[in-house]
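Continuing the batch. This is chain 6 of the set; chains 1 through 5 are on the previous pages. Same settings as before, nothing changed between runs. Recording input and output for traceability.
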Amino acid sequence: VYYVTVSCEYCNNTEIAILVAVVTVDTNAPIPGGCTLTSSIETDPNIRLNFTTYTTTVRFEDGNLGYDPLKGEFPLSCTHRESHDSPPSYKLIEYVVYHRLLNIRDYNTDDLFDAIEDVLTEKSIKKQQDLARVKMDAGGYKKLVVDSYAGDGVVYNVLASNDGRATAYVPAVTYACEFESDGTCKGVLPVVDIVISPLISLIGLFLCLTAHRLWHIEVYIFSVVIFVIVFYLITSNFIASTHTVRITVAVIIGLWFGLMLFLFWFFTGWYLPFVLLFTSSSGLLVTATMLYIISFIPVDSLSFFKISYVYGLLIVCVTVVLLIPAVLFPRAMNIFTSSFVGSYLVIFGIGTFVLTSLTQILMRVIKNATVSGYMKTDANYPFQINDIILVILWFLVMVTGIIIQVLLVRKREPFPKTTLYSQCRKKLNKRRQYGSND
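Output for chain 6:
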């Protein structure tokens, strides 16, 4: 590996750092890009990346079986078969796509080169235990659609293996964004996200620690959270506008509908419909968390969950299962729901500023509902030290919230016996009586 710095005369003589690597291939190891179907190059080991705001498409050419030139062997034809019943040679190779994430909004050249070296060869790839990976079928067009990490550098490589031997392709890098003149990504962290994320964490902390004790405030805030998400999904599907506009519209409408629900409870005092509504939101989050955990299991049959009606049916089934104890034990389920959802909102707000895949638990639900074809993408998230820390924090905050809420309400009625409207009228009448007596 060599590091070279050159001056670009077409770039105002800006110095450009170049990583030059010479990689040897073992005899009889697969030849990356040895069977090109779409490239004009005879042997094309390059990886091609195309990205949008939400997805990155990884494409590469088929490999071919290796050979030993010292024994007078020549490259096999891509359609070569060992026997009449055996598949073509290029279908005997297995492919695994790896990717290495850089730190959040890290544009340092040295860190980028280090990440490239981590996935440069077969040996360097196998040394890394925390690389995200996706196994691909041997035959067919080599195309993989994965999540985009807008503003964060990702290095991709492919390992082609056959009969115990493996060879790496040429790594490819993307930041999934347009660059500014100073070398940073353009608009990867909107101002609206910077403002809302701490607010989300604060709301989550309130729901987690004191929601059931302050039931009347929970009714409004939890309703607002639910309707903001719902109307963000609606505006994303039907309004062609920027992320900031969609968020703003969703928040305004969510505040209004939250107020309407609060007024409904204010005059009726019915608590069970709200417990069921809040429990339904926890059912959605439980399902999303289950699918997030399942995404780390290297089982090919997990593509079953990418079918839209299976995905929807799973959400409905989990939600129904949770609604049963919500009817039987409304206070206990409300405490669990507010602590579970609230603790996740704390983590979600932190995730805006810290590189973690935990934010994808909710974001995949939103993207599945708003981005056409997104459900077919592979959720190949790396589970890194930040994720471990935030998972522990999520658990501790949730358990702490449950304990605190139980202690706060253990000697109180499960829910208010009278409407808040009648309580306010009684207090107002008492004040009037005291005033007339004086």
